[in-house]
Amino acid sequence: MTEVLRTGRLALHPVSMSDHRALLTHWTGPLVRRHLFDDRIVSPVQVTEIIAASQRDFATEGYGLWALRAVRRGGPAGAALDRAVDLAMSGASLVGVVGLRRHGGPGGRGGPDGLGGPDGRGVDVEILYSLEPDRWGLGLAAEASRAVLDYAFGVVGLHRVTAEIDAGNASSAEIAERLGMRPWRPGPDGPDGASYYAADRARWLGSRRAVDAVP
Q1: Looking at residue 171, what is its pLDDT?
Q2: pTM recorded for the entire structure
Q3: Which domains are delineated in the chain?
Q4: What are the N-acetyltransferase domain coordinates in residue numbering (predicted)?
Q5: Are 204 and 180 in contact (CB under 8 A)?
Q6: How many CB atoms lie within 10 A of CB 30?
Q7: Which residues contact 147 (CB under 8 A, 6 or more apart)?
């Protein structure tokens, strides 16, 4: 199976060490780290560990973190060109990250840096994303997340994917709802803490088939 994903505006590539500098810059931005790392500044060593954990997860689980870059438009169509465009995008500016990680869910154990690797057996899989602030409000987070959920349910065969939404992060809640995710459980801190949304495979694939059936 291919782990490179495409949308109308984005190319999604599994993160690699060649993305290290771009990821460090992105994740240390004050508006990005506020919700992704609880406003803690991630170190270069932590970025290295996050990339390595994602690579291990792709090798063992089939999913991890994807770097988002804009797709160039124009030119003739064709699979060969698509591959060439995707390869060219490795040198383009990073616009964000989207990914899946194994996560303990409410009351469970997450990675120490907020993007850590596997927690063990029986955990849920969580979707997470971040965008450069100048790309907010363009629908890119929902576009990338939809591609990853299609991959999660249609390719990997996951049964459920959850999303943890920080209190006050209304835009992320709106994205989860736009994706068709539903409130799942209250957060560990009650109504003022994080909230959790979930999408399940049967509902997701059913809704996608309904969309595809519309002439």
Answers
A1: 85
A2: 0.80
A3: 5-213 (3.40.630.30)
A4: 9-182
A5: yes
A6: 9
A7: 5, 6, 7, 10, 12, 98
